Structure formats: C-alpha cells, structure tokens
C-alpha cells in the first residue's frame, strides 16, 4: 500500500467516525435546554400511543387525546411545536435520560421510585388504580382476587403499586405476580378471552375504553386500597426552566378556561388538581 493511499484511507475512516459520532449524539441535550427548545422551536414528547384517552394513535394514524391537546396548548404559548414520539412505556425513563425524548407525558403518575429518576411538574390531574373484571366473575373486591390470575401493564404505576404493597394484592393473586403486557389493550383481549380474571389498570383508561367499546355493562370497575395518584410531566432533572415554563402554562391555561375546555372535551368535567388552580 502506498503512503498516499494509506493516508486517504485513514482520512476516510476519520471522517466516517466523526459522522457516526455526530449522528449518535444528534438530538441529545444536557443541562438546562430551554434555550435549545426556543431556538429549534421544537420539543419531543414521549408517550404510549395506546393509552386512551390520554394519548393514543387513532385508526387514521393521528395522535389524539387529552394529554396531546394539553401539550399543544402549553407549548403554543411559547411558539414551540411538539413532536410526539411513541415509545415503549417500560423504557420511558431510559429514553428520557438518553435524550431521545424531552418529556414523558401520557398519564404519567408521580411515585417515589420515579422521583428518584426524573423531575416532575406540578400535578395536573388525579387518577386511581382499579381492577376491571367481567360482570359474571363473582369478583367484587381486591380480596376476591385470591388465587385468581391478574394482568397489568409492565412499567405502569399500577404494577409499581402492586409490587410495592404486596399485602394489598400481590400476596393474594395466583403465583403472587401479574401477567404483564406491553399495552392495556393486550390485557383487555386476554380478559375478554378468560386468560386472566382481572386487569389492574388506570381508572381513566378503564372508563374511557369500556365506554367507547359499549361494554360498561359487561365489566365491573373495582376500586381498591392503593393510594390515589397524580398525573404530571416527567423531565430530566437538569431541565429546570422547562419545568417552570410548563407549570406557568398550566396555571395560565386554567385561568383562561382553556384547560377546562380540553377536560370537558375528553371527560365531560373539570379534572384539574388544586396545584394548577392557584
């Protein structure tokens, strides 16, 4: 090999390495990135695109839901467009840390475990974990799930509560664990086909899904003793300005009545927490 040819190959390898390195870090943000969002006029929101009515993809491929509308309203105040990125919900904190998304926003419940990993905005909506069973199941309470098969979404706050408070449900169910699903929709399919006896799920999802399917009379929604939850937006802990801006926008939207308009569209009532009503 000639020296000239060797130098050419070395140069090409160096350029290739630089291009790969740049591509691998494309979109990655560290520190307080508010000025970057403002400059790019774009921010990426990570969501589970099957979680009706909070954020989901409809039959035409359009992103819809309460959180979708709310996020658009929040960033419209700052002239920033929201890019909606569907993610594996079980990897949501990893996607945030790696910079593939800038926010976790899709019925994301505040828990102590999650607070160790992410920063949360003010809570904007309340939620509750319930069990959905068939009306004919004979199950009327959490205690009736003894030796029964339970399903839950992996990585969900419901499954976190299930494992964190074993005496309330985990120690009762068959195998002392739940069948885990990537989406709640998969869980409902198994419930319908009697492969599980109950599905641990967010109340907001259960109500909306069964109402849309016209199956409220075929199933029961059972409240338990898990502590009620709040929905908030998850951020990288360094994104303090973003956290402040979202909190300010929540309060402004509520004062203007636009938050209530969005809530009425999806739930028929005001679902705001006291934190954003101030």
Mind sketching the topology for me?
Blueprint: H1 3-24, H2 34-40, E1 42-47, E2 50-51, E3 55-57, E4 63-64, H3 66-76, E5 81-86, H4 92-97, E6 103-104, H5 112-115, E7 119-120, E8 125-127, E9 129-134, E10 150-153, H6 157-164, E11 178-181, H7 184-192, E12 198-202, H8 203-213, E13 219-223, E14 229-231, E15 234-235, H9 240-256, H10 258-267, H11 274-277
Parallel strand pairs: 1-5, 1-6, 10-11, 10-12
Antiparallel strand pairs: 2-3, 3-4, 7-15, 8-14, 9-12, 9-13
Helix pairs in contact: 3-10
Keyword list:
single chain, 278 residues, alpha/beta, five-stranded mixed beta sheet, three-stranded parallel beta sheet, 11 helices
**Strand ordering within the main sheet:** 11-10-12-9-13
Q: How would the global form be characterised?
A: globular
Strand content: 15-25%
For the record, give the distance between the C-alpha atoms at the N and C termini, rounded to a whole number: 74 Å
Question: What is the number of helical segments per DSSP (H or I, 4+ residues)?
Answer: 11
Q: What share of residues is helical?
A: 25-40%
Work out the number of β strands.
Answer: 15
Order of helices and strands: HHEEEEHEHEHEEEEHEHEHEEEHHH
Radius of gyration, CA atoms, in whole angstroms: 22 Å
Largest sheet: 5 strands, mixed
Low-confidence stretches: 7-26
What does this molecule look like?
Mean pLDDT is 90; it is low at 7-26. The chain is of the alpha/beta class. It contains eleven helices and 15 strands. α3 (66-76) packs antiparallel against α10. A five-stranded mixed sheet has the order 11-10-12-9-13, with helices on both faces. Strands 5-1-6 form a three-stranded parallel sheet.
């Amino acid at each position: 090999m000639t020296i000239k040819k060797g130098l050419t190959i070395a140069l090409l390898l160096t350029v290739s390495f630089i291009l790969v390195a740049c591509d691998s870090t494309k979109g990655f943000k560290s520190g307080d990135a508010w000025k970057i969002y403002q400059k790019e006029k774009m921010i990426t929101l990570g969501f589970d695109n099957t979680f009706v009515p909070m954020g989901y993809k409809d039959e035409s491929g359009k992103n819809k839901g309460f959180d979708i509308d709310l996020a658009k309203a929040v960033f419209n105040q700052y002239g920033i467009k929201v890019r909606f990125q569907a993610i594996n919900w079980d990897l949501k904190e990893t996607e945030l840390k790696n910079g593939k998304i800038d926010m976790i926003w899709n019925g994301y419940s505040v828990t102590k475990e999650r607070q160790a990993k992410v920063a949360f905005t003010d809570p904007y909506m309340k939620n509750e974990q319930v069990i959905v069973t068939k009306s004919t199941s004979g199950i009327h309470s959490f205690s009736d799930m003894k030796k029964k098969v339970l399903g839950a979404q992996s990585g969900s706050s419901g499954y976190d509560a299930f494992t964190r408070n074993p005496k309330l449900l985990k120690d009762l169910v068959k195998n002392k664990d739940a069948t885990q699903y990537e989406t709640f929709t998969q869980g409902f399919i198994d419930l319908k086909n009697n492969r599980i006896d109950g599905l641990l799920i967010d109340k907001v999802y259960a109500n909306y899904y069964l109402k849309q399917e016209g199956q409220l009379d075929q199933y029961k929604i059972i409240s338990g003793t898990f502590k009620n939850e709040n929905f908030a937006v998850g951020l990288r802990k360094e994104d303090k300005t973003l956290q402040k801006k979202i909190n300010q926008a929540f309060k402004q939207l509520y004062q203007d009545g636009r938050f209530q308009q969005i809530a009425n569209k999806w739930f028929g009532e005001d679902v705001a927490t006291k934190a954003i009503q101030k």
